[in-house]
Amino acid sequence: MTHLQTAIVRYWQEHPEFAEYARAEGLHPEDGILPVRGIMFDMDGVLFDSMPYHSKSWARVCNEYGLHITEEEVYMNEGRTGFSTINWLTERQWGRATTQEEVEHIYALKCKAFNAYPEAPKMPGAEELLRQVKASGRMICVVTGSGQASLLNRLTGNYPGFFTEERIVSSRDVKHGKPHPEPYIMGLEKMGLQPWEAVIVENAPLGVRAGVAAGVFTIAANTGPLADKVLAEEGASIVVPSMLALAEAWQELSRWFSCQPYP
Ligand code: CA
């Protein structure tokens, strides 16, 4: 059994209600097959190599405002909405919830600081992976905690032909950001899929937690400075070292993301 197949068997064991449904549909979960019809991609740290600029701009702006946060803490909290991040900091440091004015002010400063950096490059390997996913006829959806217009607008420009407005979930669409499962549940709804018919590609601990809570097989691409262990402990189905590694392994992996057992 391959590493992936073992992970898929474990996925079915952890979701007996899904396995029962799949059997009724004529699938054999014990074969280690996942009938994947759509892939949900996180954006920052997955499609764009933007996390170094995000962590630097968050840390600088918050510290200047008097709210202390380290760059590593930014990575640990990656995926939260701007509101949730700022609220977490004011609760921790000042013992009170944040205010709307505070959020708007700090988030505007953070976006300004981020936009002063050079354009974040596309993540190496991301386009190769998207191409393979599209060629296989599977759906593609973006599910991001970001509300950063400069990046959201670049999705369609930098990755032409892969994304449509209707299949992008951003912080503007949800009530609860990651690590709440709502963004990924909304992604499933946009594609009309059940949790076991999708795969998530995430890079952040809280993003992985959100994906797992949505009941979806979650691949962690570790594109940042945190240890693999941090992603595995959040319940990642598998952890890969980069998007490039995932793109290179995709053809082999997708044999198990199929409706039929691989011969
Ligand atoms: Ca991310």
What this model shows, in words?
- The chain is α/β, with parallel strands linked by helices and 263 residues long.
- The protein folds into two domains: 3-49 and 123-253, HAD superfamily/HAD-like (Rossmann fold), CATH 3.40.50; 51-115, Orthogonal Bundle (DNA polymerase, domain 1).
- The chain has helices at residues 3-14, 16-24, 51-65, 71-76, 82-94, 100-116, 126-135, 149-158, 182-191, 205-213, 228-233, 243-254; strands at 38-41, 139-143, 168-169, 198-202, 217-221, 238-240.
- A six-stranded parallel β-sheet has the order 3-2-1-4-5-6.
- Helix 10 (205-213) links the parallel strand 4 and strand 5.
- The model has no long low-confidence stretch (mean pLDDT 93).
- Calcium ion (CA) is lined by residues 42, 44-46, 78-79, 203-204, 207.
- Calcium ion binds next to loops.
**Uncertain spans:** none
Helix amount, in percent?
40-55%
Radius of gyration: 18 Å
**Helical/strand content category:** alpha/beta
Strand order of the largest sheet: 3-2-1-4-5-6
- The average pLDDT is 93
Examine the secondary-structure arrangement and name the CATH architecture of the largest domain. 3-Layer(aba) Sandwich
Short characterization:
The protein is α/β, with parallel strands linked by helices and 263 residues long. The chain has helices at 3-14, 16-24, 51-65, 71-76, 82-94, 100-116, 126-135, 149-158, 182-191, 205-213, 228-233, 243-254; strands spanning 38-41, 139-143, 168-169, 198-202, 217-221, 238-240. Residues 42, 44-46, 78-79, 203-204, 207 line the site of calcium ion.
List keywords for this structure.
263 residues; alpha/beta; Rossmann fold; DNA polymerase, domain 1; six-stranded parallel β-sheet; 9% strand; globular; binds calcium ion
